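At this stage, I wrote out one protein's amino acid sequence and its backbone structure tokens, and that material follows here:
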Amino acid sequence: MEEEASSKNYFLIIIIFLFIIFLILYISGETGYYEYKVHTKTILTEEAIKEFEKDISEGKNVKLENYIKTEKIDYSNMISDTGYNVGILIEKFMNKGIKKTVKILSSLFLD
């Protein structure tokens, strides 16, 4: 009897958690948060276009890097770097193992 009650509690907790996430996304969509972010980027782009056209009309040297601002955020941390390095080690290990297996199989069937 207790097992059924505890499993229902987990299910209820998951449903409530998903509902809260839905509410957060719904409210952010209704308040126009995403549209505001897109609008801000559009204004920055329009300003860059006007500055670009002004510089061309003045005969200045024009480089694309001066007008397009790319925002690169580095999200790496110790855990992601460790995961990446472990993945590389596993890849090397698997490649060596597969090469040896293919070599053994080819020697069995091709000789």
In short: The first helix runs from residue 2 to 30. The chain has a mean pLDDT of 84. The CA atoms of residues 32 and 38 lie 10 Å apart. The helical segments are 2-30, 33-58, 78-110.
